[in-house]
Amino acid sequence: MWGGGKMSIREFYYEYRSELVFGFLLTALVVASYMLSPLIPLEVYRMIISPTLNCAILVCCAMSAWALFRHHQGIRVRKMSAYVMTAWGVVLFIGMWMKLSRHNSLTAADGMLSMDGWEFVLGSILGWLLLVYPTELLRPGWLNFKRAMCDLMPVAVIGVLDAVLDTDMRWLLAAYPFVLLAFIVVNIRAYRAYCENYYSSMEDIDVQWVVRYIIMLVILGASYCFLSFARFPTRLFTQQWLLFFLLFYSNEQILFRPDPWVGRVRERKEDEPEGEDNGSSLTGNESHYRAALEQWMVTGKPYLNKDFRLTDLRQVLPLNRTYLSQFINTEYGCSFYHYVTNYRIDEAKRLMRENPQMKVQEISDRCGFSSSTVFGRVFARETGRTPKEWIAENDNT
After folding, report:
1. Buried-most residue among 44, 69, 221, 361 (CB within 10 A)?
2. Residues 106, 109: Cα–Cα separation, whole Å
3. Do 388 and 256 reside in the same domain of the chain?
């Protein structure tokens, strides 16, 4: 009955299919843009398209930084994102100012056929700045000045080697952000595992948004690698609109989506009052605790509450949150999230058998799911069928 081990391919598909579709469509659009951009007249690109996109990116950075500074609400990840947008805006402004001072035009250098080593270094640094948000989101407080300098040290070393050696080292600079992305992907799994051990709903955790953000970074990085070595003058068009899309979309999400870490420190303090059992009574009482918990789950049905969380188990188990999580993991071989999800899925099946005409939204609400969308995704992941398909199959039997 109890799931929650390694995610299978089927479960991965149902969990992230919207993100896979998002990545596929964005990749197709980028490829089409690169195929069509050589057809753009060079003078039109230089005089109209490129300056417009550069100004749009600059305005986006400025407005995002202002909004994030003004409405950060004490959330560290928003403050850091505001500094990132400020840095991007400053770099872009300096680049535009240099063009004006040297050529009296914002368009004179656009359409260049090659990139210098310093431009690769700058591009790698700017790419690293885009990784600040997911790093802070997944590991709050981990990123500090010392770790940031360690992250950027390889960029400086590769840049120096490219300048002093005859060997072209630019491909290492273009590829380095992907090494940092691998670190982020590993932390997504750890972050999700942590959340599943303590929360019964993943809606506010929103791992899917982090995955979409990383997909955008991967596509942007691949695009950057391509334009770095491509030879047609208007290839920068794709990178410009793609960067604007990433900045606009991501900052809207950062500013308006609920931050999953807000109140976590306060919750931990509330969840660990002085004198709480440290788990010394766990050994030898597992069967008693298991019977008490299962009786409460069956008779009290606390899982029907959308805000049901691990520490609510203290109503029947005298343990702190750490040992509550350990108890669930040991006794049922799954996380708290999967433990509760199984009860909710079973309740949904019961309602669908007894009331096949009941709407999915009502079933979702009555079973403790945060939304019908979440219910549909979780049900399909766990059963391999959508709620409507499951109802149809069971009506025929």
Report:
1. 221
2. 8
3. no
Structure tokens at 141: 């407080």
Inform me whether the pLDDT recorded for 42 exceeds 60. yes
Asked whether the predicted pLDDT for residue 3 surpasses 50, the reply is no
115 versus 371: the higher-pLDDT residue is 371
CA distances from residue 193 to 14, 109, 319, 394 in whole angstroms, order as listed: 18, 48, 21, 33
Count the domains in the chain: 2
Q: Check which CATH number belongs to the domain holding 308 and give it.
A: 1.10.10.60
In this predicted structure, what is the pLDDT of residue 106?
41
Cα 78 from Cα 89, distance rounded (Å): 16
Q: What angle do CA 104, 107, 110 make, to 5 degrees?
A: 135
Between the alpha carbon of residue 106 and those of residues 58, 103, 227, 240, the distances in Å are 13, 8, 20, 15
Where residue 298 falls (left for φ over 0; alpha for ψ -120 to 50; beta otherwise) is alpha
pLDDT in tens, 121-149: 666 777 778 888 888 777 777 878 888 88
How many Cα atoms occupy the beta-carbon half-sphere of 106 within 13 Å?
15
Residue with tokens 């955008």: 216
Question: Contacts by 32-37 with C-beta closer than 8 Å and gap 24+?
Answer: 33/237, 33/238, 33/241, 33/242, 34/223, 34/226, 34/230, 34/235, 34/238, 37/232, 37/234, 37/235, 37/237, 37/238
CATH number at residue 206: 1.20.1070
Q: Do 242 and 280 sit in the same domain of this protein?
A: no
Residues 384 and 10: beta-carbon distance below 8 Å: yes
Structural domain harbouring 384: 273-396
Q: State residue 260 phi and psi, 5-degree precision.
A: -70, -15
* Two structure tokens written together for 352: 């669908």
